[in-house]
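Entry 12.
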Amino acid sequence: MNQKGLSQQDYQRIIVEGDAKVLTERAERIGTGLARQLTTSQIRNVFGTVRQIEMSWTPQAADQERKYAARQLLLLKPKLAYQARRERGRGVQQLADILIPAIDLVGEDRGRFQNFVDFFEAILAYHTAAGGQ
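Predicted 3D structure (tokens):
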């Protein structure tokens, strides 16, 4: 389990199986917890990158486009590490600790990627609802 209490089984159910109930329960806990430690601009900066990847990784994407999008998602991991170090705040590090294991499960699978996007979007929504600045 990582710092936010997500087990490997949680990640499996959210990213691989697409379990919406587990996704929303965990996202609410994470988003609410991050509201006090992470600004909306910090989380939206990362989410914007994910949205750009999503636009290029359409269901109709050719093999080369799919591989490029999966590569861009993997490259989000060092960007998260850099941002966490640069910001020196616990919030960005906690977000990285949540997202990196999820990214690792996506691979080149478009369905898993969509589950990842849904999870991240739910975290952002709960963060905002909890008063994230």
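Annotation: The helical segments are 8-16, 20-34, 40-56, 63-87, 90-106, 110-129. Residues 63-87 form the longest helix (25 residues).
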